[in-house]
């Protein structure tokens, strides 16, 4: 008896605009290494880097037809690709709402899926943590790529006994952040387009109307265009339980704060959304580290760091509304293969 892993055949990949080159690399490389061919649709907002990478692949010996890039609108090219009867595996990275539509289209032909659908990841800070290290990682975890990152640490859960001191220091850090486009000394860049800016600003307006308070915010750098798609980094407090800024992926540099008394309450708050992509745990207590790592509902857990498992060698993906399946690592490579069992009778 033998059990083989074999390629699916034609794999479809639909990738987003926030990290087009990186996501192209990790998806395409695994699919091709497993023996598949690829039809990839980049986001219409960011397709030129993907097209150039595909050109370079062909120029450097990749056979014609093995890698195919199909630019176009999601409602047209993306929908057609997801529903195509000759697709044998589909990988999608994007919003949960679009992911649902993609999954429904692929289900007609029972196509296996890898879905990476975003997150609302908590940073959990206990009183015994190295607060200075935690502070810098928390700031970077929400302003990187202007918060347009599925793994952004967009919720801060801070133990009540240190909340006043820690938030005071964090507010100072937020107040010093600057926004500009293409400047080396800027901390945060613009959002992708006017629509994304408008959606985020509307959410923040609703939050303020509901009593949410901005404890601190960044500023536009001197000379930055006021016509740009900038939303300055914001630190939100006094948030009603269950509010959308605690539940929904905002995809911008906005950090929502909650307080907890003890480990049990921290666990409840950490698991208080439908998402489950990443979590950061800040404590020196080894037992607490492992208890929370096991109990937090997420695909990646970072202890006394955030984002250290971002390399190509480590599997990445989520649970719940964050999706299913894994990209990167050997698990990501295996996801582009299927299993066949062969039994031979001798004699």
Automatic annotation (TrEMBL):
Signal peptide: none
Keywords tagged on the record: Oxidoreductase
MF-aspect GO terms: oxidoreductase activity, acting on the aldehyde or oxo group of donors, NAD or NADP as acceptor
Gene3D superfamilies: Aldehyde Dehydrogenase, Chain A, domain 1, Aldehyde Dehydrogenase, Chain A, domain 2
Protein's UniProt keywords contain Membrane: no
Residue span, Aldehyde dehydrogenase domain: 2-342
Transmembrane annotation, as ranges: none
Name of this chain's protein: Aldehyde dehydrogenase domain-containing protein
Organism: marine sediment metagenome
Lineage: unclassified sequences, metagenomes, ecological metagenomes
């Amino acid at each position: 008896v033998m059990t083989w892993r074999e390629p699916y055949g034609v794999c479809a990949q639909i990738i987003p605009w926030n990290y087009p080159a990186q996501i192209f690399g990790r998806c395409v490389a695994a699919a091709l290494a497993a023996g598949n061919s690829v039809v990839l649709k980049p986001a219409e907002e960011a397709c030129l880097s993907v097209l150039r990478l595909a050109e370079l692949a062909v120029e450097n010996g990749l056979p014609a037809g093995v890698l195919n890039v199909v630019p176009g609108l999601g409602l047209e090219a993306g929908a057609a690709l997801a529903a195509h009867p000759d697709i044998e595996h589909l990988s999608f990275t994007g919003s949960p709402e679009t992911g649902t539509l993609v999954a429904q289209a692929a289900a007609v032909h029972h196509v296996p899926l890898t879905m990476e659908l975003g997150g609302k990841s908590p940073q959990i800070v206990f009183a015994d943590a190295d607060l200075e290290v935690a502070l810098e990682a928390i700031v970077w975890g929400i302003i990187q790529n202007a918060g347009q990152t599925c793994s952004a640490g967009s919720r801060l859960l801070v133990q009540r006994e240190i909340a006043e001191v820690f938030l005071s220091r964090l507010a100072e850090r937020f107040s010093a952040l600057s926004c500009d486009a293409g400047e080396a000394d800027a901390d945060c860049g613009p959002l992708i387009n006017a629509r994304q800016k408008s959606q985020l600003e509307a959410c923040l307006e609703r939050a303020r109307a509901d009593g949410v308070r901005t404890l601190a915010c960044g500023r536009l750098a001197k000379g930055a265009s006021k016509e740009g798609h900038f939303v300055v980094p914001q630190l939100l407090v006094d948030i009603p339980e269950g509010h959308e800024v605690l539940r929904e992926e905002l995809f911008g540099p906005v950090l929502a704060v909650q307080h907890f008394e003890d480990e049990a309450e921290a666990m409840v708050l950490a698991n208080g959304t439908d998402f489950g992509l990443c979590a950061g745990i800040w404590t020196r207590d080894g037992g607490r580290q492992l208890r929370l790592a096991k109990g937090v509902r997420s695909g990646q857990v970072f202890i006394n760091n955030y984002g250290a498992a971002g390399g190509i060698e480590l599997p990445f993906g989520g649970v719940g509304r964050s999706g299913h399946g894994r990209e990167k690592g050997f698990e990501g490579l295996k996801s582009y293969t299927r299993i066949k069992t062969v039994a031979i009778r001798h004699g």
